[in-house]
Amino acid sequence: MSFSVRATGALAACAVLATVSLAGCGGDGAAKGGGSAAIKVGLITKTETNPFFVKMKEGAVAAAKAEGAELTTAAGKFDGDNAGQITAIENMVAAGVKGILITPSDSKAIVPALQKARSAGVMVIALDSPTEPQDATDALFATDNLKAGELIGQYAKAAMAGKPAKIATLDLAPGVAVGRLRHDGFLKGYGITEGDPSVVCSQDTGGDQAKGQTAMENCLQKAPDVNVVYTINEPAALGAYTALKAKGREKDVLIVSVDGGCTGTKAVQSGQIAATSQQYPLKMAEQGVKAVVAHAKGGAKASGYTDTGVTLITDKPAGGVEAKDTAFGLQNCWG
C-alpha cells in the first residue's frame, strides 16, 4: 500500500527522450523490443515498500517484458500521497505513455488529474482501489473489496457461535474507497449495519503496524471487553495482536483481516490472526498491462470492472463459510 522520488524524477527525464528503456525510466530492466516502437505503459502505486505493491510491480514488469512494452513506474512517499500521484500522472502523459495503471491514494482527489490524462488520449486503469466515481477511469482490475470484507465478517460471525460480540474496527483512512469497502463488507458479513452497538470502537490505522498497535491500545482503554477485531490489513492486525498480547488478551480475542500477504498468511498459520481474505495483486497488474498493450495495438478498450479474485484463508474453518487452508495461502501469497 511509497511515491519514489527516484522514480518520479526519472519520469521527467523520460519525457524529453525519444527512446528510453525501462531502466532509464526508473523502472525494471529493458523491455523486449525496446526503442521508440515499444508501447509505453505507466504504473503508479501508493507506496514502493509495501509487499502488496512490490508484488504488483513484479506482475507489471513480467507482463511488460512478455508483451514487448516499455514500463515506467512511480510510487508514493506514503499511503495518501495524492500530490505525488498527480505529478507522476503528468510526467507519464508528457513521456507519451499509452496507458496508466494506478492504485489511487485518494479516490476522489485524484479524479481531475485522471480526467486530464484521459482527455489527452491516455487509457487509465485503476488497480486494487476504485476511484470515486468509478467511471473516472476506463476500467478497474481489482479484488472485490466488499466481498473480501464480507468473507471475514461471515467467518467472524460463525466463529463467535452466538456469543455476544464487542467489535473493534481498525480501519484505513478517510477518503480511501478500499478501506470503506472492506469495512462495509465486514459489517455486512457479520449481519450488522453502521452504528450497531456491538461496534464498540473504531480507529484509523493507515494500514500501518505501529499505528495498528496504538489503535488497539486506544480501543482497549475505551472498551476492555473487546472480543472481535476487524483490521483493514495484516500489518494492522499484527499491531493489534501485539497490543492484545501485552494485556494478556491475545488468546481470547478473534482477529480477522484482509490481504493474504505471506507474512499475514504465516500469522494465520501461527494463530495470531484467525482468518484473512487473500487477494492477488500480481494478477491485477499483469492483466492491466496486457489490456493497455492490446488497446494500443488496435484492440478494444477495457471497460468496467474485472474481478481478480479473493479467497478466505484459515486453518480453523467455520461452518458455512468456504475457505482454503494456509498451505494454499502460502502457495499463493505475496511479499
Automatic annotation (TrEMBL):
<dbReference type="Pfam" id="PF13407">
    <property type="entry name" value="Peripla_BP_4"/>
</dbReference>
<dbReference type="GO" id="GO:0030246">
    <property type="term" value="F:carbohydrate binding"/>
</dbReference>
<feature type="signal peptide">
    <location>
        <begin position="1"/>
        <end position="23"/>
    </location>
</feature>
<protein>
    <submittedName>
        <fullName>Fructose transport system substrate-binding protein</fullName>
    </submittedName>
</protein>
<comment type="similarity">
    <text>Belongs to the bacterial solute-binding protein 2 family.</text>
</comment>
<dbReference type="GO" id="GO:0030313">
    <property type="term" value="C:cell envelope"/>
</dbReference>
<keyword id="KW-0732">Signal</keyword>
<feature type="domain" description="Periplasmic binding protein">
    <location>
        <begin position="41"/>
        <end position="298"/>
    </location>
</feature>
<dbReference type="InterPro" id="IPR025997">
    <property type="entry name" value="SBP_2_dom"/>
</dbReference>
<dbReference type="InterPro" id="IPR028082">
    <property type="entry name" value="Peripla_BP_I"/>
</dbReference>
